[in-house]
Design a protein that fits this description.
The protein has about 270 residues and is α+β, with helices and mostly antiparallel strands. The protein contains six helices and 19 strands. Strands 1, 2, 3, 4, 5, 6, 7, 8, 11, 12, 14 and 17 form a twelve-stranded mixed β-sheet that branches. The protein is globular, with a radius of gyration of 18 Å.
C-alpha cells in the first residue's frame, strides 16, 4: 500500500495511492495510519496528478546516518565507520516531496543527499537485527539536504542539516510488505536532468536491520520515527569540480519501487 498526505480543501488529508488515483482515507497523514487503522471513505478518488502532495508525516524523531555507504565514504576520503554514525536532523526541516528547498543564503555549499527513509511502525527498544525489520512500517525517499561548509565547520549539524525545508520527504510511504528487501534498491539523483548519484542500498555499510537494532540500543524508536539511512556516492561536494545547489536548480531523487521526489531550489531570505 502507498500512503500519502495531500492538500484537501486547504487541509492535510491521508490518502491511499493506487495507480493514477488517490483514495481519501480518514486521517491527516501517515502517522494516523501507523497508530490506527485508516478506513476508506466513500468519497470520490482524486487524480494523483492534480493533488498537492504534502510530507507523508512529520516524524517525532528524524535520525540520520553518516557515511553509511562504502562508495560515499570513499569519495569523502574516510574509512567506512566501525559502527553507525548517528546524527539528529531537526524534524522541522521535513517538507513536501515537491519542495521547494529554500536556499537560505547563509551557506555557499548547499548539497543534496538522496537516501532511503525508513518509517518506524512500532515502539522499538533493544531489538536484535534478526527481528528489526518487523519494526518497519514502510519506506520513502528523502533528500538529506546539507550545507557542507557548516557541516565541516561545526561539531553538530543543527544548522548544516536542520535548516527549514532541508528534508523533502515522500512522495508517499510504501508499506514494508511491498518491498522484498530494503538492501536491493537503486537510488538515483538528478540535478537539472544530469544524473549525479546512481547507487544502491546494497552498498550500505550497515543495513536497515542493523541500523534499527543499533539505534534501538541507545534510544527508544517510536511509531512514525524516520531513519535517513545514508547517501551513496555522487554528492556535489565531492565531484571533480564541486557542484553546489543554487537557486533555479531542480533536484529529482528516485528509488526503485518507492517513486520519486522532485523539488526546486529557490532563493530565500
Ligand atoms: Mg545523509
Amino acid at each position: 500500500m502507498r500512503l500519502c498526505s495531500f492538500l484537501d480543501g486547504g487541509r492535510p488529508r491521508l490518502g491511499r495511492v493506487a495507480g493514477e488515483l488517490v483514495h481519501p482515507l480518514r486521517g491527516r497523514d501517515v502517522a494516523d495510519a501507523i497508530v490506527a487503522s485508516a478506513p476508506e471513505t466513500d468519497e470520490a478518488p482524486r487524480l494523483l496528478a492534480e493533488v498537492e502532495l504534502l510530507a507523508p508525516l512529520r516524524p517525532p524523531k528524524l535520525i540520520g546516518i553518516g557515511h553509511n555507504s562504502r562508495d560515499h565514504a570513499a569519495e569523502a576520503g574516510v574509512e567506512p565507520p566501525s559502527e553507525p554514525r548517528l546524527f539528529a536532523k531537526l524534524t522541522s526541516s521535513v517538507t513536501a516531496p515537491g519542495g521547494p528547498v529554500v536556499h537560505p543564503g547563509w551557506t555557499g555549499e548547499l548539497d543534496y543527499e538522496g537516501e532511503l527513509a525508513v518509517v518506524i511502525g512500532r515502539r522499538t527498544r533493544r531489538v536484535p537485527p534478526r527481528d528489526a525489520l518487523a519494526s518497519v512500517f514502510g519506506y520513502a525517499v528523502i533528500d538529506d539536504v546539507t550545507a557542507r561548509d557548516l557541516q565541516r565547520a561545526e561539531g553538530n549539524w543543527v544548522r548544516a542539516k536542520g535548516g527549514d525545508t532541508f528534508g523533502p520527504l515522500g512522495p508517499w510511504v510504501t508499506t514494508a510488505d511491498e518491498i522484498d528487501s530494503p538492501q536491493s534498491l537503486r537510488i538515483r539523483t538528478w540535478v537539472n536532468g544530469d544524473l549525479r548519484q546512481d547507487g544502491t542500498t546494497a552498498d550500505m555499510v550497515f543495513g536497515v536491520a542493523e541500523l534499527i537494532a543499533f539505534v534501538s540500543d541507545h534510544l527508544t524508536l517510536e511509531p512514525g520515527d524516520v531513519l535517513a539511512t545514508g547517501t551513496p556516492a555522487g554528492v556535489g561536494a565531492w565531484a571533480a569540480e564541486a557542484r553546489h545547489l543554487v537557486p533555479g536548480d531542480r533536484v529529482r531523487i528516485e528509488i526503485d519501487g518507492l517513486g520519486s521526489i522532485e523539488h526546486d531550489v529557490v532563493a530565500g531570505g
